[in-house]
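Long-time lurker, first post. I've been practising inverse folding by hand and with some scripts of my own, and I keep getting stuck on stretches where the structure tokens seem ambiguous. Below is the full token string for one chain I'm working on. Before anyone asks, I'm not after the true native sequence, just a reasonable design that respects the backbone. If someone could post their per-position residues I'd love to compare against what I wrote down in my notebook.
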């Protein structure tokens, strides 16, 4: 999972971590921000390209991940079947739905739009959105994207460091390194990725848990048995990261929220968030 403008501790979220030069109370309690994207975006289902747009819009909404909205002319409307399903959003209005049918496969109520959005809503009439997981594959340009769109305001930087990182679980040292890769990601605490040679691998047991991140790839997890306790899925690694996160390949990271971390001898506070 990830966070940016309107989620987590982003500037327009309810838990904004920064400070404005005006009273934030003047902002609406629920923010909607629609913008164009320069990326070509394609959506596939049942072997068919259901949407292909060079004019896609990205909607940011308080507490939600960004959502792609496609112009109707960039949709395969012949593959969409209108349904009787409807929902109401107090910030956008009444949504109409379509199912996607390709051969014998049907994704029911997987597509929605707001034909008459509320006056305060950005101009989303004539635009259509998909439930991400209802489709088979998404591409930005020619690169497949997983989980959700990549937010243009979400940044990931991986920096080489010589800081001394020491990690303990239940009072027992499980990792110690002076060559971490520190990953700085928008709205998240720094993550310390350590080479496996600096981790007590004998205390780690691999698990079946997997998570996906559009900015890093697929994470694999381990449970730690240390300090007389078992801490499940507290360590992860990206054995095949996307190109932008190549520097963390095969390094291991511990949840700041569940272990004790010292950096240059200073204990780090455990953050409230739990995202990889």
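-- Answer (accepted) --
I ran through it position by position. Result:
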């Amino acid at each position: 999972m990830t966070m940016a403008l309107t989620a987590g501790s982003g500037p327009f979220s309810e838990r904004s971590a920064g400070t404005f030069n005006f009273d934030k109370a003047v902002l609406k309690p629920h923010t909607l921000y629609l913008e164009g994207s320069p990326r070509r975006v394609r959506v596939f289902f049942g072997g068919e390209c259901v949407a292909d747009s060079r004019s896609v819009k990205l909607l940011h909404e308080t507490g939600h991940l960004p959502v792609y909205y496609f112009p109707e002319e960039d949709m395969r409307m012949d593959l969409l079947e209108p349904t009787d399903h409807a929902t109401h959003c107090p910030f956008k209005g009444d949504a109409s739905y379509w199912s996607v049918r390709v051969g014998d496969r049907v994704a029911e109520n997987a597509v929605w739009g707001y034909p008459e959005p509320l006056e305060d809503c950005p101009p989303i009439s004539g635009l259509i959105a998909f439930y991400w997981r209802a489709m088979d594959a998404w591409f930005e340009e020619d690169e497949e994207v997983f989980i959700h769109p990549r937010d243009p305001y979400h940044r990931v930087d991986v920096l080489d460091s010589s800081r001394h990182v020491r990690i303990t679980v239940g009072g027992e040292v499980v990792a110690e390194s002076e060559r971490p890769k520190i990953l700085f990601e928008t709205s998240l605490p720094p993550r310390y990725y350590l080479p496996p040679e600096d981790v007590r691998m004998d205390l780690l047991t691999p698990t079946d848990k997997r998570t996906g991140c559009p900015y890093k790839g697929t994470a694999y997890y381990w449970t730690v048995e240390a300090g007389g306790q078992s801490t499940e899925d507290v360590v992860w690694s990206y054995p095949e990261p996307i190109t932008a996160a190549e520097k963390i390949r095969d390094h291991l990271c511990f949840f700041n929220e569940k272990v004790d971390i010292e950096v240059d001898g200073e204990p780090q506070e455990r953050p409230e968030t739990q995202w990889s």
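A couple of notes from the structure itself: The chain has no helices and 22 strands. The chain has two domains: 24-145, 156-267. Happy to go over any region you disagree with.
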